[in-house]
């Protein structure tokens, strides 16, 4: 038995399999990513608490001798066990190692892969379509997000994707639409671009904000940053039914059709959100970078085809 295995046995540490499963679930609860294991990371204590580890188990140090370099490396046995679990998950392609994630995000993090994400949903007995609702990061989706962010808007941008006429939904198009969602909500800082509402569930897994297409999918609108807006559920619905749109200066314009609605429509407590459109100078809260602004031609299309002026 190796020195490390003996230490694990002597200190009655959890098995690697148990730590692997816990680590996968912890990744899910932290939005798909955790930083590399060290004393300063809450994740290290969080998983230790799941196993009710005592102070001795958390702090016992493993000494490894690097003969070639003639030096001794001291690592807490618990961190080593976490690392071993991460490494085993990476070999099974359920997570990416910090060295690999670094190239994508510039951060040393362990990240779920799509396969790892499926496995967590299986452990937790959640249906697979949760992936379309939760903004959990996976390596494959983040690669998509990166490519959406890095695209430069072509001078003759066309917001329509005629290829969508073929209705086959491929694995890639599913990743693309999750990438679209992640990219849009993060570029608008998880807020509605009309009212500014920012709200997440207490476990921080679900966000109220939605990624809306300006030109909808059914009209062959593209899944890219220029054809998207982050909207709260109320403003998403109101935008999709044409109760408001934007002019070319991103000023919100309210539909005259809302005038024919009864007075008690659109009231939230004693505030009329329909009146708010009409009375105030309400502008779209734009992303920080001009390259990420919504496309005027796409907005124009919405004004002409959806908005009831
Ligand atoms: Zn809103």
Overall pLDDT confidence: 91
Kindly give the count of domains. 2
Question: How many beta-strand runs?
Answer: 11
Strand coverage percent: 5-15%
Tertiary shape: elongated
The value of Rg in angstroms is 25 Å
Strand order of the largest sheet: 1-5-4
Residue share in helices?
Answer: 40-55%
Sheet/helix structural class: alpha+beta
Helix and strand pattern: HHEHHEEHEHEHHHEEHEEEEHH
The end-to-end distance, rounded to whole angstroms, is 78 Å
Question: How can the largest sheet be summarized?
Answer: 3 strands, antiparallel
How many helical stretches?
12
Low-confidence stretches: none
Bound heterogens, unique: zinc ion
Description:
This protein is α+β, with helices and mostly antiparallel strands. It has two domains: 3-137, no CATH class; 175-305, no CATH class. It is 40% helix and 13% strand. The protein has twelve helices and eleven strands. It has helices at 3-10, 16-29, 42-50, 55-59, 77-91, 98-105, 114-124, 139-150, 171-187, 233-240, 273-279, 296-305; strands spanning 33-35, 61-66, 71-76, 95-96, 109-112, 210-213, 228-231, 244-246, 252-254, 267-268, 271-272. The strands form five sheets. It has a three-stranded antiparallel beta sheet. It has a two-stranded antiparallel ribbon with strand order 2-3. A two-stranded antiparallel sheet has the order 6-7. Strand 8 (244-246) and strand 9 (252-254) form a beta hairpin. Helix 2 (16-29) packs across helix 5, helix 2 crosses helix 7 and helix 8 crosses helix 9. The structure holds zinc ion. Zinc ion (ZN) is lined by residues 192, 194-195, 197, 231-232, 234-235.
